[in-house]
Amino acid sequence: MQIIQILLDRREFFLTCLLEHIRISLTAVVCAGVLGIVTGIFISRHKKTAGVVLGIVNVIYTIPSISLLGFLIPFTGIGNKTAVIALTVYGLLPIVRNTYTGLVNVDASILEVAQGLGTDGVQLMYKIKFPLALPVIISGFRNMTVMIIAMGGIASFIGAGGLGAAIYRGITTYNMTLTAAGSVLIALLALGSDWLLARAEKAVSRRYGIE
Amino acid sequence: MNKAIEIRDCSAAYGDNEVLRHVSLAVEKGEFIVMIGSSGCGKTTLLKMINGLVVPTTGEVLVNGERLADGNLVAMRRRIGYAVQGAKLFPHMTVEDNICYVPNLEKKMSRAEKKALSEKMLQMVELPSELAGRFPRQLSGGQKQRVGIARAMASEPDILLMDEPFGAVDEITRRTLQEELSVLHDRTGITVVFITHDIGEAFRLGSRILIMKDGGIWQEGTKEELLRAPKDAFVERLIGGWHTE
Questions:
Q1: Is the pTM of this model over 0.80?
Q2: Cβ contact A209–B137 (<8 Å)
Q3: CATH superfamily of the domain spanning A2-207
Q4: Of A116, A118, A128, the CB nearest to B90
């Protein structure tokens, strides 16, 4: 009840934080999505690089988020830019891994038939491999999105906006209700995005007849 | 120039394992060649050499007089139909998109063109046009195989390569498909190279039968020639299970 009350009382503050959170997360989702899918396609075509690239992305993933933000400050300063870079780098693992896994696990006999029928390399990727790998890629995209939204809360510690600002303010002023309200909104945003993307995943699978 | 396919002294290997040894074969236009032999004898490798999926370690392959190694392989493959066991239809495409796949690779087809072509091809393989909008998972084994043949034939290829295309369907459907393929061959005059494990199927379909063994062509001839003068006990055993129908 207290959470609802504070959300209503300070709705303008929360709305600003929410929109800022969506803006930061969406920018990072787009950047990580594009970079991750392109990288995943590249390493699926040049398999010798896959081990190294996935290894690097894995190592980055193990760095504590607050440390990564700290490492970036000397180069990119404080604020939203650093937050977007850190979230993008963190978001890479699920999307690179799922794009790679989806593409390399497409049935080899289907690919051979496609080649035998006269499909060139580019057509093989966009007509056969990518559509067949799409459910796995979308699944990685879902993980990435939820992770970025959830981790976006920490960005306020380096001066970025978003719902983390409400959590941070709650901690520093011993206002647990404020912290809880910020956390609940982040959780709802993450769950809502996951639900939307789950529907998209299902729709794509149905569209491509590969349920 | 009446040769559709020429294989000149070709060998092939997977790593250290040599699966074809100095094979030569000439196929006249319009012939229906059937390859038969035990598993691992090199039939599929020989077939895949014709559309360049397997590159020979020695010798050369010519299709319609053109060396595969010199030509545009992608363009040449579009002139060679390819159908395999289980059809291997593209699961994310409808029957219509599967059938129009090869023509659509060359030139983006309009909706009307696709509809017209898929209707024509479905009619050719004796399937109702209502199937055009279905996905492969919604088809029976026999229907998939027919669509696979329609896809292979849609670009009006000069040559049709078929690797045990009827291997995964029941006996009744298999007989029907064999009859349909035979009629199709007579009507279009297309050159067919067909692999089977079933000697009855080989005798029913082939104008020439190649018996393969140990990475080479062991004996070749018409049904009558093979029945009259089998080369050895292996060929006798292979054709022994066949009864006059």
A1: yes
A2: yes
A3: MetI-like (1.10.3720.10)
A4: A128
